[in-house]
Structures are given as C-alpha cells and as structure tokens.
Design a protein that fits this description.
Layout lengths: L1 H15 L1 H8 L5 H26 L6 H28 L2 H8 L2 H11 L7 H18 L7 H28 L3 H22 L3 H7 L22 H25 L2 H4 L1 H17 L6 H83 L1
Helix pairs in contact: 1-11, 1-13, 2-5, 2-11, 3-4, 3-9, 3-11, 4-8, 4-9, 5-8, 5-13, 6-7, 6-8, 7-14, 13-14
C-alpha cells in the first residue's frame, strides 16, 4: 500500500507542476509545437506498458482500434490540450490548473448524456458544488484575463467529453487505461503534425489574420528552439509530466482502485496554485482561494461517493462469492449424500443378487441329488 501512495504522490507532483513548466516553456516554444512534442514523447514513454498490457490480454491493433484512437487523439491532443496550452499562455498557470482539474465534473455530465449512466445524489451534489467554485474563481462580474479562463474552461469541458468517449471505446475494444492513453497520445501527435504541416501553406496565414491568437497557428515549427538550454525542460515535460505522470497514475489505479488514484486530482487544485506562487510568483486572489476551497469540497463529496460505491460493489461481490461458496458446499454435501445412498443401494442390489444366485445353486444341487 505504501508503494501505491508513493505512485499517487509522484503523479500528483508531476501533474501539479504541469501548468507551471508549460508556462515557462511557453516563452521559448510555440504552444502548438509544445503540445506536439510532449504528447509524442509521452506516448512513446507509455508504449512499453501498453504493449505489455496488450500481450497479457491478447489484444491487437486492428482498423477499428486505430480509428478509435484517431478519434480520441483528435479530441484529447488537438482539441482539449490545444485549448489547455493556449490557456496556460494567455492566463495564470494557477487558475488554469484549478479550472482544468474540474474536468471530472463535466465527465459526469457527459456520462449521463452519452452513456446514460445514472447521476447519484453525491455526484449531482459534487457537480453543483464544483460549479459554484468555478463561478467563484471566474468571477464573471469582475473578469480579469477572460481569454485564459475561457480557454481553460473549454479545455476542461472537452477533456471531460474525451474521457467519456475514451471510456466507451475502451469498453468496446477491451483496452485498459494505459493502452488507451498511449495510442491516443501517439495518434493525436501524428494528427497534430499534419495540422502543423498545413500551417506552412501560404493561404493559411491569410485566412488566420493578424490577431495575437491567430499567429500561434501560422508556420508552426516542429522542433525549433530545442537546444542544450531547453532540452532538460522538454524532457521533463515529455518524459516526466506527460509520460511518467500518466504511467504512475495508471499503476496506482492498477494496484488499488479508481478512487485512490483519483486523489491526484483531489490534491492538485490545492497544490498547483501554491507551486505557482513560489515558482512563478503568481498571486492568489481571495475569490480564487474561496473557489479552490469550494472545488475541494466538491471533489471530497465525489471522492467519498466513489469510495462508498466501490465499497458497496466490493461487499456485493463478496456476498455473491460467499453465497456461491455456501451453495457449492450445500451442493457438495448433497452430492456426497447421494453418492453414499447410491453405494448403499448398489450394495443392497449386489447382496440380493448374490442371495438369489446362492438360492438357485442350492436348488440345482437338491434336484441333482
């Protein structure tokens, strides 16, 4: 259990440092380029774990699986993470970290709309409380840096949607979380590379115009800016945050349960702003502190509800197994009793047959005499 929590802590630290590191790298790299590099590296880091999992479960990549990964790659890497990366560039890292951590709230809503899963009372309460926290942080009556906040919320919404689509594909194809994530990253980065190549066509610049946001989508470089001064930062983002972060998260999930692994996203909204304060010097407004506290309450409600559900499912499974075991014991005893009765009946028939044969032989001897 100690190793499990170690994996949770490592994953929490890596994920909490994500926005801060990306903010620092954003001054050197194009945000879309950074997206491409980190998910390509992250996918390759997860590849050995994915191959091992596929071998264990006797799965293979067919046309249907590749199409599924292409879809999740589009939703995750190109749509959600592009919005996320731009949010980091145009907003505060601490705010983006908190807003993006609310993506499970939107996943609950999409699970109800798409998978038709029932929203329990605790899940519904968690959604409502977390929404209040988001509104408190955004502070719509006194918006500051609205572009960054809008992009962050858009990223959280689309990531929640991606999570549900990924879960549905996973259920249909039989792939586990690490395999889904690995090939989502790889296919998504390849799709993004195609989009980046298109950005070098002359007509793209004319279509995008001259806005500050549009310039990030014109003539996007692939590996420009990587040097001896920036390579460690790129490796930390790709191997550490994106690769090892997700790997330790899924390992923690495999060693325990979903609710224990989800502690990562329970701690991050509190830890990330503190790290941003000390590393980037980002101040934390009062409304942000209140919003973080409210979101933590919502996360706690969701965590406790999830834990309760898992415990009930475990108890139900244990009860079922106990019932099956008890019924098996009763069946075994009945079978043994039947076997004893059959043996007695067989012995009686044998004795009767022997008596009959003896009587016949006796009668024949008397007739001879």
């Amino acid at each position: 259990m100690r190793k499990t929590f170690l994996f949770v802590l490592v994953s929490t630290f890596l994920f909490s440092s994500m926005e801060i590191t990306l903010k620092m790298a954003g001054s050197v790299f194009n945000p879309i380029q950074l997206n491409f590099i980190r998910f390509l590296i992250g996918g390759l880091v997860l590849l050995p774990l994915a191959i091992r999992s596929m071998r264990i479960h006797h799965l293979r990549l067919d046309r249907s699986a590749l199409l599924g990964f292409a879809l999740t790659g589009l939703l995750c890497v190109i749509v959600s993470m592009t919005l996320f990366q731009l949010a980091v560039v145009y907003g505060k890292a601490s705010i983006v970290a908190v807003l993006f951590s609310s993506n499970p709230v939107f996943a609950l809503i999409f699970s109800y709309l798409i998978l038709h899963e029932k929203l329990s009372r605790t899940n519904l309460l968690s959604v409502l409380v977390s929404t209040v926290g988001l509104i408190m942080i955004i502070n719509p009556f006194h918006l500051s840096a609205p572009v960054g906040m809008i992009l962050a919320v858009g990223s959280a919404i689309t990531f929640g949607f991606y999570s549900i689509i990924s879960r549905k594909i996973s259920q249909n194809q039989g792939f586990d979380g690490v395999t889904m994530t690995c090939f989502t990253f790889i296919l998504g980065s390849l799709e993004l590379a195609f989009v980046m190549a298109l950005s070098h066509l002359p007509f793209v610049g004319a279509l995008m115009g001259q806005s500050a946001l549009a310039k990030d989508f014109v003539n996007m470089p692939f590996f420009a800016g990587i040097s001896s001064q920036t390579i460690l930062m790129i490796l930390y983002i790709g191997i550490g945050v994106t690769g090892a972060g997700f790997a330790t998260y899924f390992i923690a999930m495999e060693r325990s349960d979903v609710s224990t692994a989800s502690l990562v996203f329970f701690i991050k909204p509190a830890l990330a702003p503190i790290m941003a304060l000390f590393i980037l010097g980002e101040s934390i407004a009062v409304n942000t502190l209140v919003g973080i506290a409210i979101i933590l309450v919502g996360s706690t409600i969701s965590f406790l509800g999830q834990r309760s559900t898992e415990q009930k499912n475990t108890m139900a499974t244990d009860d079922y197994l106990d019932t099956v075991e008890a019924e098996g014991e009763v069946a075994d005893k009945a079978a043994q009793a039947q076997l004893v009765a059959d043996r007695k009946a067989l012995a009686a028939k044998k004795a009767a047959l022997q008596s009959k044969v003896a009587a016949t032989n006796y009668a024949k001897r008397n007739e001879t005499n």
